[in-house]
Amino acid sequence: MVMAPLVAGTAAAAVGGCSATATIQSQWGSGTAGGQVVAVTVANTSAQAATRWTVTWTATGQVVSAWNATVSVSGGTATAVNATYNGSLAPGASTSFGMQLAGTGAAPAMSCDNDAVPPTHASSSSSSGADVRVTDADSGRTVTLLVGQTLGVSLPATFRPVTASGSGLSQVSSSGGFPTGQPFAALYRAVAPGSVDLSSQTDYACLHTTPPCALPIALWAVHVQVVDVSSSGGQTVTVTTADNGRALSLRVGDTLVVSLPSQYDPPPSNTGGVLVQRDVSGGYPTNQPLVVHYTAAAPGQADVTTYTDNPCDHDPTPCPGPIMRWTIHVSVTT
User: Disordered: where is this region (predicted)?
Assistant: First the structure.
């Protein structure tokens, strides 16, 4: 892959007590056949401390990968939510995240909100900064939460407000959805062990006219399993680079600690509900050792996988060093 020198500048916005500045670090190719690496600096411009932030922008290309934030795209809008380790910002403090985008173009113009002041636009939702976040793309997914964790739900404005059946979740907030014309956003807290089904469906004004229109109705559902392992007294197992390829057996309630050098990317948080990622610190590009804590939450099997990354991989002329894969295979029993 041949990268060209930086040809685009920066784009910044400051609203909602928060500013987001995007800078194109490198580009290669041209148009849809190319790609670029974008770095985003997020700053708390409020006089109050913030514990979470959300950055949104108009998506013009596919998000290939991201680091130091969870990035999703829905309905033409891209949303980046802070990681567990970089959401808290003192007044004037800043952090950063990065991503690789398919295609080339100018640095995206971004909007930013945090919880230091009330949100200022509809696309910012109460699900920002939740421990787990689901969108319309997660329909059919099963999510495992620990008691005390939060679940954020974000759906396009064409979906009705979500209904919940079962026990284990308490709704903290809800807004938008059909027929308000605003995106639907809700926040739930896991309060007790149990099982909950969240569901919704699309709706349109023309479906309520005579005669109704023929637009199809899309169904959305997510199954939530809440578990409590706080009193299980499980063991703590720590794995390092020497455990690459290892098959590991855990019991529900055990703690898994992944401890790797700083050049490794933070691993994805989704492990099918078998392991719940509690917190992440360090890893590329923080220059600090990577430490990730998981709780074994449900019986099953899961892989934890990550790769090495280096600053020179993002230079105009990438370095030739190999990318190393690290993975462990985890089996959880009761």
Answer: 110-134
Domain limit, last residue, from 114, 143, 176: 114
Full DSSP string of 207-219:
GGSSSPP-PPPPE
- CATH number of the CATH domain containing 43: 2.60.40.290
Please indicate, yes or no, whether residues 144 and 222 belong to a single structural domain of this protein. yes
Backbone angles phi, psi at 68, to 5 degrees: 65, 15
Q: CA 114, CA 105: separation in Å to the nearest integer?
A: 27
Mean pLDDT, residues 146-170:
88
Each residue's pLDDT tens digit, 207-249: 889 998 888 999 999 999 888 766 556 788 999 999 999 999 9
DSSP characters over 168-204: SEEEEEEE--TTSSS-EEEEEEE-SSEEEEEEEEB--
Instruction: Give the integer Cα–Cα distance in Å for 111 and 146.
Output: 31
Strands 63-67 and 275-283: unpaired
Alpha-carbon gap, residue 192 to 28, rounded angstroms: 50
Residue 3 has which token pair? 């990268």
Q: Does residue 29 come out as left (phi exceeding 0), alpha (psi in the -120 to 50 range) or beta?
A: left
Q: Burial of 157 by CB count in 10 Å (0-12 exposed, 13-18 middle, 19+ buried)?
A: middle
Q: Are 68 and 143 in contact (CB under 8 A)?
A: no
Are 110 and 22 in contact, with CB atoms under 8 Å apart?
Answer: yes
Q: Residue 68 region, left (φ>0) first, then alpha (ψ -120 to 50), else beta?
A: left
Residue 165: CATH number of its domain: 2.60.40.2020
pLDDT in tens, 16-70: 578 999 999 988 888 777 888 999 999 988 888 887 888 888 887 788 888 988 8
- Rounded CA-CA distance 166/225 in Å is 10
Which residues lie below 8 Å from residue 3, measured CB to CB, with a gap of 6+?
Answer: 26, 27, 28, 315, 316, 317, 318
Residue 271: what are its φ and ψ, rounded to 5°?
Answer: -125, 30
Domain boundaries, position 267: 236-333
Q: Is 17 inside a domain boundary?
A: yes
264: DSSP letter: B
User: Letter for the amino acid at 26?
Assistant: S
Q: How many structural domains are present in the chain?
A: 3
